[in-house]
Amino acid sequence: MRRGQLFWGIILVLLGLSLLLGNIFEINVWDYLWPLILIGLGAAILWGTLRRRDNETFSETFVLPFEGAERARIKLQYGAGKLTVHGDPGAADLIAGNFSGGVEHTVRQENGVTQVTLRSPVQHAAIWPWDWADAGSHRKWSVGLSDRVPLDLEFETGACDAYLNLASLPVKSLRVQTGASSTMLRLPEHAGHTDVRLESGAASIEVRVPEGVAARIRLRGGLASNTVDTVRFPRAGDVYQSPDYETASNRADISVETGVASVDIR
Question: Is 70 exceeded by the pLDDT of residue 222?
Answer without folding.
Answer: no
